[in-house]
Structure formats: C-alpha cells, structure tokens
C-alpha cells in the first residue's frame, strides 16, 4: 500500500484534469470520474531508465476552500503487466498443444490400445482368490464346540454373534487384481493430463472473446460452441474418475462377501466379473480420451480463424 497526494492548481476542476505529476517522476491519468487512476510510466532514478508500469489505483477527491480541488491519491497496485504476460504465455502454450501435443498424444494412445489394452481372452484377467472353501463336516463340529464353550462361559447369543462379525476372514490378506491395477495406473495419468490440457485450451478460447458489441457476433457464437464442447468434455472425464472409485468399492464388497461366505461360489465369480468389466471400461476410457484429443484437434483447427479473430477486424480483445 502506498499513499501520496497531488494538488491541482486553484480554479481547475477535477473533470478537466487530464494529467497530474506526483513527486515529479510519476505520470498519472484519470481513468474515469469514479476515482480510479492509471499510471503509465515511472522513471527509475537509480538506473535512469523509463519503465512502463501499468496498473489501476484508487483515488478520492477533496474540495478545499477558494475553489481549490485536491486529489488525495492512495493506491494498491494491480499489475496489468503480469496479467498480459500470463495471457500471452497461456496462448502460446495452447497453440503448441493444438499443433504438437494433441497429434502426438493421439498416436501414443493408439499404440497403447494395441499393446497394454489389447486382451482377446478376458478369462486371462482372472486373479486368484486365496479364500479356502471350508469342509461342511468340520465346520459343523467347530460350531458345536463353540456353542458348548459359550454355554459354559454363560455368553449370550448376541455377544457370540458380535464376535463372529468382528472376526477376520478365514484366510490371509486378499490383494487387488495386479493386471487391472497396472492398467489403472496407466489410465489415471492420462485422465489428469487431459483435464489439465482441457483447462488450458478452455482458458485460451475465453481469452479470445472480444468486447461485447451489437452485430457481427457469428464468430463469437463459434467461440461459445467450442467452449461448451470443452466444458461438456471435462464433465465426461470427471465421470471416468468416479467410475474408477466405484470399481474399488464394489470389488471390495464382493471380496468381503466371498471371504465371509466362502461356500457361495457366486460371490467368487462376482469378483472375477468385476475385474473383467473394469478392463473393458478402462479400454473404453482410453478410446474416449484418444477420441477427445482427435475431436478437439479437428474442430478447433477447422474454426481456428473464427476463434482467433471472431470479428475479423482486429479489434482489441476485452482481456
């Protein structure tokens, strides 16, 4: 925060002031009568160089006696230079994505579909479940002994049931399907990369939107359509992440049921079916990601001129 003041010569009114000199080295121009000033440049006395420093600063007007008008200026600099630099850097990055990254990514994902995600025999995805199937006769004998023991100790049925629920499965730890897990580790980075690149391209399209005016807005409508496509695509990609989380939840429930009721074969088969289904979904996710890059590359290049110059007259952008 910085605060100084500048005095206008007597008899001069605020609305007629176009330039004020503060400390003899800062040039100021009123942006509007709402009390905002814009600094154009400042001379650095240490280096004797003139540096353009853009920004808006808050000002208030005080009326002195005898018609003297004083502008008491206090400002909190909002650097427009940094914003301009950010916009230029982002635009350059987005155009490089469209010209280089998207085509390379399409080729990379196509190769991934031919290698890691090329499984003709879904039965090969079956992961072993180390859950022993109990012998009915031994289980019955074990149950009777437990009931006799509980009767001697005076335990109630509710206490016994609670102990059964808290007891772990009659086997060791049950691990995830290693093959499906390895494929998931390949898909997750692709999802995150696509989301980040979509964010960059969406911001680039928004920065091309010109000042709002009447007429000649066909190019602006094209920009809006492309932006809508980018937004809907992002929503679709986020749904993929939700599906992956759902897979872990459903598989965990199926494994828990299979371990608690090992004599029920359907629970075991459910685990294998979920693994096969998830593989098919992961392959479709890679297809969707590849197609997303291809569609965006195609539609943006077809409408590149309208996106960059929506009115075709070179008017300054609103940003």
From TrEMBL:
Description of how the protein assembles with itself and partners: Heterodimer of PSME1 and PSME2, which forms a hexameric ring. PSME1 can form homoheptamers.
One Gene Ontology cellular component: nucleoplasm
UniProt entry keywords in alphabetical sequence: Proteasome
UniProt xrefs under Pfam families: PA28_C, PA28_N
Assigned protein family: Belongs to the PA28 family.
UniProt-recorded name of the protein: Proteasome activator complex subunit 1
Domain Proteasome activator PA28 C-terminal: 174-313
Highest rank taxon of the organism: Eukaryota
GO molecular function: endopeptidase activator activity
Residues forming coiled coils: none
The protein's role, per its UniProt record: Implicated in immunoproteasome assembly and required for efficient antigen processing. The PA28 activator complex enhances the generation of class I binding peptides by altering the cleavage pattern of the proteasome.
Any one GO BP annotation for this protein: regulation of proteasomal protein catabolic process
Domain Proteasome activator PA28 N-terminal: 83-136
Compositional bias annotation for Basic and acidic residues: 136-161
Chain intervals for the UniProt region annotation (Disordered): 130-176
Keyword Transmembrane tagged: no
InterPro entries: PA28_C, PA28_C_sf, PA28_N_sf, Proteasome_activ_PA28, Proteasome_activ_PA28_N, Proteasome_activ_sf
